[in-house]
Amino acid sequence: MSGEPLESPAVNPSASRPSVLFVCVHNAGRSQMGAAFLTHLGRGRVEVRSAGSAPADAVNPAVVEAMAEVGIDISAETPKVLTVEAVQASDVVITMGCGDACPYFPGKRYLDWTLEDPAGQGVAAVRPIRDRIERRVRALLDELGIPVTG
Fold first, then answer.
1. pLDDT over 70 for what percent of the chain?
2. In angstroms, rounded to a whole number, what is the distance separating the alpha carbons of residues 119 and 148?
3. What is the distance between the alpha carbons of residues 14 and 141, in angstroms, rounded to a whole number?
4. What is the pTM of this model?
5. Is 24 labeled as catalytic in the residue annotation?
6. Which residue among the candidates 33, 63, 102, 140 is catalytic per the annotation?
């Protein structure tokens, strides 16, 4: 991908698969849900990553349960540490409450999705966060020119 221009902040949907990185502090809730929805709805047409600036030991069990309710199994996922390489390899970087911990590189498209942190909350509190993330992922796919069915 080194031949792609770095000055354009937008993703070119006609290029090879766009890549998206979801980042939150613990990579145990919001970013895991974002990555799971994009993987599920993108059906291999988007390269998906997620990471955290201070990763937890495990994905939030209430998040796992909430995602299972919509038919997406993330029980085998593990939080990953945010690396400069992950940011550099991504066309779109979506931050979800990680503040200034995410490195900035010119030419990347950055989106900040302000969402409540599901940490320490039960599945009932996670559901509306999950649903907002799904709507935003669907809108992102539309912006990328990737049709979603269902």
1. 87
2. 29
3. 13
4. 0.86
5. yes
6. 102
